[in-house]
Amino acid sequence: MVNGFDELISKVKNVDVKTVSVAVAQDEPVLLAIKEAKERGIANAILVGDEEKIREIAEKIGLDLSDTKIIDEKDIVEASLKAVKLVHDGEADMYMKGILDTKTFLKSVLDKEVGLRNDRPLSHVCVFEIEGQDKLLYLSDVAFMTYPTLEDKVSIINNTVEVCHACGVENPKVAPLAAVEVVNPKMPVTVEAAELTKMNEEGKISGCIVDGPLSLDIAICPEAAKEKGATGRKIAGDADVLLFPDIHAGNLVYKALVHTANVKNGCIITGTKAPVILTSRSDSSETKVNSIALAAIVAEALKKN
Q1: Which part of the chain is CATH 3.40.50.10950?
Q2: Residue 119: predicted pLDDT
Q3: Which pLDDT score, from 0 to 100, does residue 304 have?
Q4: Strands annotated E in 101-256
Q5: 5-117+272-304: CATH topology
Q6: What is the pTM of this model?
Q7: Which of 51, 74, 98, 107 gets the most CB atoms within 10 Å of its CB?
Q8: 18 near 268, Cβ under 8 Å?
């Protein structure tokens, strides 16, 4: 089991080097991440976008492009389609957003001709290494699905468990979160959490352990679980996956961790034929590199399967 991003990156170096296709790559923060990913042996890249601007930025930051394929395409929409097609056709292993708007980027992901559409709904997985926690935490969904239905939550669990398995967590513990740890008919989130637990017990959700509803403290803090008399639960302070009831809860926790705690993180979109790296311009270079490494591990697992 991978317990941190240093271990994750070491694991990446033990598999075939993956290639990331970058859409509209003329972006300094993204190219800095590509530079570090190449230097650390995490991934190579194919850069699609304005070649003149890409080379100008590369020279500025010291990125050697002598062994990097560049596809010159100045039109943003066309660049995104050409970049995603490289992954669709197997010329690259993962797809990364450059300096284009998220809507256009996702349109290319979902394009019927050249995109990475799968038979599952897309969801976002963010992996956190948090000081004081002895393992990685997998958070979903914090950025993509707004108000997931029960069916959506099943898809989110399946997508996230796939990432956990790729990272060596054989039987991840999934905690459907709520404000309380008991079922209350007036709180639909708790009812759905209990239903997810039942579906897991019946084998309709597999490859993991689901136990909900759970409050956040019981899910991640053994002392809190003990104090609240929850040590008999299947998850008692040792959750691997935090399943949020909606995007508000997930995004608030995500940003609280990023801006107040000592953390490392990486994020990808799943439910696609290949991993999709959707980072924000406000994300650090380290987060972008970690996201590339996470995508590479998932790409390797998908290749094996």
Answers
A1: 5-117+272-304
A2: 86
A3: 85
A4: 123-130, 137-140, 173-176, 209-210, 241-243
A5: Rossmann fold (3.40.50)
A6: 0.94
A7: 98
A8: no
